[in-house]
Amino acid sequence: MKQVPLLPTERIDDLLTYDLKIIQSDEVFSFSMDAVLLGRFSSVPPKGRIIDLCTGNGVVPLLLSTRTRAEIWGVEIQERLADMAVRNADINDLSERLHMVQGDLKTIHKTLGHGQFDAVTVNPPYLPVPNGEQNSNAHFAAARHEIHCTLEDVVAASAKLVKAGGKVAMVHRATRVVDIICLMRQYRIEPKRIRYVHARAGEEAMMVLIEGMKDGKPEIRTLPPLIVYTENEEYCQELKEIYYGGRSALEFS
């Protein structure tokens, strides 16, 4: 593991898969299961160019690096998180393949180009900006609420960045699935694969994983649901394999 500078509140955590390490801090939003599932669900080319929007501290690019030799860009608007993403690439000796950029996803195509990426991944903020009081921690507020970008901003940006035939994969709240599908079609990203994530059997879906193809033909596959917890309140076998780098979970479909 390469040595990198840490701020006083930062720590180095184990990602549990492929010996990856990640710098985190309680002062900013840490990665969650959503990002891990996205990193395994998304289709990735064996080589080429991938971009991860709303990358935070760069966890999705780190996970994707275990599945492909492609070059991967991460885009994060918050300076603190973008700096952590840069150092997370460095600490894992991946700086030559992982390029972390501080920038606004709404305009990043002006820097990185139209239609230059084979795949786009994104774990965006889930909630509309509240009318009343919101989290006093700006990092937490931006991670949870659409302060810097709306869902439409995310889909529009993805459509500009991905090439024809390229894939766009997203994780979001299951309650937003209609919005996601409508916006994808509006921006010529045809939904192709969808999978719902349930906390427990018999409960309604809490998350949705969805992937579309730029200028693809209409047809969607609904994959078997993922049930996170067993009857014994343990992670299901599939999740254990994902977290510990099980080869059988790499395609996640």
From TrEMBL:
InterPro entries, alphabetized: SAM-dependent_MTases_sf, Small_mtfrase_dom, tRNA_Adenine-N(6)_MTase
Top-level lineage group: Bacteria
Name of a matching Pfam family: MTS
Domain Methyltransferase small: 35-127
PANTHER family reported in the protein's UniProt record: TRNA1(VAL) (ADENINE(37)-N6)-METHYLTRANSFERASE
Name assigned to this protein: tRNA1(Val) A37 N6-methylase TrmN6
Taxonomic path: Bacteria, Bacillati, Bacillota, Bacilli, Bacillales
